[in-house]
Specification:
261 residues; alpha/beta; 4-stranded parallel β-sheet; 13 strands
Length: 261
């Protein structure tokens, strides 16, 4: 039996749906279990684990690492390409520490890029909503930031292969298309799919960073954080990408037929 944290979110939701479609018993570990899901169990970060929460669960995610390890279970962590040696972001450093803890306990780690798919959430979903109906858009540094993309169905299949023993890993697995793209190229494809040409207003990264930090100090909530800007502006080096483990799952490039619903 498999436990999936974050199952109400975009990536976690796609993964648990994929596992269940493959006939794998997958339990959603969520803050508010929906009445429609009889297999869901309540779980919230920071709260003590109930004795019954991990009953029957063999593979989970980082939040349940200690409890699973104590029971002889195994953890699979869906991390991020923001996690790498020398990362400048707090998010990346936190993910890297989680990866180390998982691997020390014989767990598995996958590092996806920017996850996309039909009806996507996350950053890609936000870009689709913002760019599908308008051509003019501001972009930090003109959108030159390097990104790797990961199709959600292929990411879910990789997770299924790992937990079912059809794939093996000796370290973090690269889970994205092998050829990088840019934020601007992604935005241009989204705009073209909406029938218009993208017009970019370049924003100076230093000025944007100053504005984001000022808003955070003032307690103004924003959908984008200064730490996210650090992740975007200082991506993983290509030499580190090439050193990551690979699986037999070949991730496709960003193509409209893979994300247009």
């Amino acid at each position: 039996m498999i436990g999936v944290t974050g199952a109400n979110g975009y990536v976690g939701g796609r993964i648990i749906a994929h596992l269940r479609a493959r006939g794998i018993d997958a339990i959603a570990l969520v803050r508010r279990p929906p009445p429609s899901d009889a297999l869901a169990r309540r779980y919230e970060l920071g709260e003590p684990l109930e004795d019954s929460l991990l009953d029957g669960i063999e593979t989970g995610s980082m939040a349940l690492l200690e409890g699973l390890h104590a029971r002889g279970g195994q953890t699979l962590l869906v991390s991020s390409l923001s996690a790498f040696e020398g990362t400048r972001s707090q998010y990346g450093r936190a993910k890297l520490e989680l990866e180390r803890a998982v691997l020390e306990r014989d767990g598995m780690v996958v590092r996806p890029g920017l996850v996309f798919g039909a009806g996507a959430g996350g950053l890609f979903g936000a870009m689709v909503r913002a760019l599908s109906t308008r051509a003019l858009t501001p972009m930090i540094g003109g959108g030159s930031q390097r990104l790797f993309v990961a199709h959600d169905e292929h990411l879910s299949e990789l997770v299924a292969a790992l937990i079912s023993g059809r794939a093996e890993t000796a370290g973090p697995i690269f889970a994205a298309h092998e050829v990088p793209t840019t934020l601007r190229a992604i935005a241009e494809q989204i705009a073209r799919s909406g029938g218009h040409r993208l017009v970019v207003i370049p924003l100076p990264p230093a000025l944007v960073a100053l504005g984001l930090r000022s808003a955070e100090i003032a307690g103004i909530p924003l959908p984008f954080r200064s730490d996210s800007l650090r992740s975007l502006s200082h991506p993983i080096g290509l030499d580190q990408v090439s050193s990551l483990a690979r699986s037999q799952i070949a991730f496709p490039a960003l193509e409209p037929e893979l994300w247009l619903s």
